[in-house]
Amino acid sequence: MVRILVDGEGSRAVELCIRAALGDRANGEQWLISAVKLPARWVVSFLVSPDDRLGGYTWVCPAHQVRAAIEDSLRKAGFGTLTATEARQAALACEQAF
User: Fold this and answer.
1) pTM for the predicted model, two decimal places
2) Which residues is 35 bridged to in the sheet?
């Protein structure tokens, strides 16, 4: 189950980018992610992730970099990468959200 808590102007767009970057996750995976808007940037935190591989990981970036930052974090933590089609769909979802 994926739960995303967002707060701030543009929160729906950032939530869509986070969901797009995560791709399809198995039902048994537990994810809790928060995103809070600061002036000109977002603070994104993985509070819970499978095997706690990203639990506690936090970073700050502009809204247009959220998707890429999540994809990079997932790859570095060993969650694999999106297929080319999934990556294009994620990019398109974020572009449409903004």
Assistant:
1) 0.83
2) 6, 44
